[in-house]
Amino acid sequence: GNGTRTFSQVAVAAGPEFRLIGDEPFKGLFVLPKIIGAYWWDYHVPSGNRLPKEPVPLASAQAEVQLGVDFGYQFNWGPFYLAWMLGISGGVTTGGPSPCWAGPLFNGDGEGGGPCGPLVYSINLNFFRVGASF
Length: 134
Known about the structure:
0% of the residues lie in helices and 66% in strands. It is mostly beta strands and 134 residues long. Strands 1, 2, 3, 4, 5, 6 and 7 form a seven-stranded mixed beta sheet that branches. The model is unreliable at 104-113 (pLDDT under 50).
């Protein structure tokens, strides 16, 4: 129908970082195994409604759990670091058939349908990851 689908996502990833090459924390080649949890939902906002006065019904929602690993190289300046990183992960989704690939490079068809059933895979490429450790 007419209108706009608005998409939102909350994701959390956690895991230990292991230095492969380098003699300081947050400096050198690293590997980071991780677990990822995500919840995403979208709404259908009818045409002409920029800010609806009534609650907008949920169009769909799904949760996702993945296991993954990041590989990268970090530079540090005191407690601050800069990293280049490539990651891969795979897992399952509760949203029915998935488009197979998830993440910023692969958005699927946006409708939650696809040939992979409940499986989902992701590629993560960061050219400029910054952070701090205290």
